[in-house]
Amino acid sequence: MFADKNLHRFQKLRHLLLILPILVTACISPVQYGDIPHGDYVADERCRPGVQPAEVMADKPYFVVTSRLPDCRTDRVALLNQRSEIVRYGRFGAPQEMEITNAKGKEKLREVIPFALNNEQQWWDDLAAAAVKRDGRILLYVHGFKETFFTSARDSAQISRLSGLDIPVVHYSWPSQGEFLKYAADETNMYYNERQFRSFLAKLAQQPWTKEIILVAHSLGGRLVIPAIEFVDRNSSNADSSNISNIILASPDIDRQDFERDIVETVLTMRRVNNDRRITVYVSAKDRALGLSYNFHGYPRLGRPDCFNPFEAASLRDQGYPERCYAAKTKYDTEPEKSGLTIIDTTAISRGQTGHSDYLRSGPACSDFAAVVNRTENRASKRKASRLLHVFELVPDPDIAETDDVAECRRNPE
């Protein structure tokens, strides 16, 4: 038996050594400029639109801000995975099936996102009008790693339907490459977007008609969002609070220790927590994407409860607890009246091959997420208390044989 174990370990090591050069090469392969000068993509005037007629925007209820390079050469303007130095504004709709003619002249049904670039001033005017009708509330979504404009816009539409809130939805789309083996490029583009995103968030937060921003960030997007909130807080005309009040981090690819160390001094100060700011974090021990990120960076991610300290893991095991370590609750000199940080563990109800998007794929997580967006989570009874006061688990309902995840997450338009 001992020999069999050693043989198995040797085979695994041999397999890893064989594929390691391929993985390393793929992960560090550069983003190609392409065969077309980037200036040609944006030469058409549709990349610099004037005021758009109302009928052009009629089927595009969602707002988008993007640093992706647009392709304005064809009838349908597209957003590419290349970066642009200019931030552009647009509108889009929920996914629709359309007949697309390919290069051979054959028509094929394909799911597409209705999209149009917008004049910047018109975009802000339209957002202001929509926000005023909804008491100044806005939902802002920032996507994560391995997303195209199509996949991230589709998720924005799902978040809107799932939340059930009839408020403006703004999607910030940065140039993720949409490929698993382009993580390093995505990380580079995310950092490249820090200035653009923080400038946009500051302008949005400073509008007199913006009363509340519900900010949802997924995966690598969390690393873009937290420094931007810090920037807005430092430059806010109101030193005591901010209208960025409800921050939701889904599977955040953030260094957990970095989050623990800095968050109390910036985003979750006592004054801001007492003024209703809070952060909700969704984590899963089955999140394979963040497991790879942990291996890549060398330290645990905020969105996956790995134990870096083996002695802490052993202590939990000896006490009969799962070996899961979470971000510590913020410590204050004077405790705030309210709770600023809540962690939701979705391990028991995790879905999908990677477990990286439970908040949009798992029925119980979708329901909890919708409640957090609506600030009604105190009425959500499916949370199970854990050994830590700020950590809760979502577990399968024993009275339900099988959860209809698609129905509960409303992944298809009603």
Extended strand count: 13
In angstroms, what separates the terminal alpha carbons?
Answer: 56 Å
Shape: globular
Oligomer: single chain
Major sheet, described briefly? Answer: 11 strands, mixed
Give the gist of this structure.
With 414 residues, the chain is of the alpha/beta class.
Characterization of this structure:
With 414 residues, the chain is of the alpha/beta class. It has 2 domains: 1-30; 42-409, no CATH class. The protein is 36% helix and 20% strand. It contains 15 helices and 13 strands. The strands form 2 sheets. The protein has an 11-stranded mixed sheet, with helices on both faces. β8 (212-218), α8 (221-234) and β9 (244-250) form a beta-alpha-beta unit. The longest helix is centred in the N-terminal third of the chain and has 27 residues, at 2-28. It is globular. It starts with a helix and ends in a 5-residue tail after the last helix. 38% of the residues are buried. The mean pLDDT is 88.
